[in-house]
Structure formats: structure tokens, C-alpha cells
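Task 17 of the worksheet. Students: predict the tertiary structure of the chain below and write it out as C-alpha cells. Keep your answer in the requested format; marks are given for formatting as well as content.
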Amino acid sequence: MSEKRITFEGMTPGSQRQVLGKSERAEPRRIFLLSPANASGVRGNTLFSPKARFALAHRLRSSSAPLGEVFSFISGLYFRGKLAYAERFANPPAGVAGAHIITAAAGLWLPQQLVTVARLKAICAARVDPDDPKYRKPLDRDARRLRAVIGPDTQVVLLGSISTPKYVIPLLEVFGERLYFPQDFVGRGDMSRGGLLLRCCTSESPLEYAPVANATRRGRRPPKLTRLARPAKK
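Model answer:
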């Protein structure tokens, strides 16, 4: 019998890459929650424009596209880094996806979930504000469902900002001590975080995580990432 994946309302099953190798047994089970892209920005408006002629916009209008791909376009480097990192370093329990995307109005979705233009606008049609029930109720619902199936020893790592309450308040209430974040995120901007995550994927070196509860959420900006050496021309 094929393995089933835990899914929530509006989601479809999809395979998630797990960390394999000698160190897998020693590593704790770990899943990632990815903060959403801002669909109301310049790139989002470009994607929604009926005049857009590039391939992704055409697919959204004519059929559908995966939410992870759409958010990677809208957000660029930051979301692309989060998605690549989560897919590379997730170590979820059996039957549970390793990466989940927080949405503004539809709770948690898998990156593989297909969306149309209309559906994308609907799941983004709320303020990412813990006091807004359109955002909070679906997120609370799906976070509790996820908590029920991951077991008590699984770490839930937020790949998103902890300097504001928009993700921290609702997620801490559900996951408590199991909610973690990458320590190297403190003080970095979105572009720096995205670049850091992609470098971790290239070097096969995950970041260190710390519990969100009682964490220092703001700090000095760290040094800029050094430029990567370009490969020598043949």
C-alpha cells in the first residue's frame, strides 16, 4: 500500500524530499513552516495583470501552477531560498509533508498545491495579522491538525520573521516549545536570508535552530554575505 501524506482543506498530497544518510537517525524529526509571499507587491501585480505574457502568468490564466512556484516568483530570492532549504533539510514523520506554506486567508498549504488566478487571490485576501480572524482561524485550524499528527518530538521550524507577532503569536500558541527558528535570521533582511538559505543547500550544511519562546528576536545586522567566487572560464 502506498504511503499517504497528511493534507488539510484545499491541499493535495505531494512528495517531500527527506534527509537521508547515516546521520538521519540521529537527527530529530523536523518540518518547516514558510511565511508567505506578498502578493500585493510589484511582482504580484505583474503576475495578475491580464497583459502579462510570460509563461507562469499564462499558465495561471489558462490552467494552474504550484503555489510554491508562484510564491517563488512573487518573492524572488527569499521565498526561493526558503522552499529549497525546506525541501532539502526537512525530516518529517512518516505520512507528514516536510514543508507547509502559511497563507493569508487559507491556513497551511503544501508547495505542490495547484492554484489558479482566482484561487490565488482568494487565499491572499486578508491581512497577515493575528487579530484578523480571516487569517487567524484557518491558520489555527491547520496548525492544530498538524500538531496532532507530528508527534511530541518533532521540531517545527519557522522560516519567516520572528521580529513581529504576525507568525509568532498564533504559532507559539499551538506549538509552544516545539516552535524553532534559524538563529542566523536575526538582524538579516529578506534578501540576505534567501541568499543564506541557498548557500546552505549548496554546502549541504543546515543552520542552527533555537526555540522561538523567549528568544532574542531583534539584533544587529550581521556582515554581508561574501560574494561567491565565479567558476573559472574554460
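Marker's comment: The longest strand covers residues 30-34. The helical segments are 42-48, 55-62, 67-75, 77-89, 117-123, 133-150, 165-175, 190-203.
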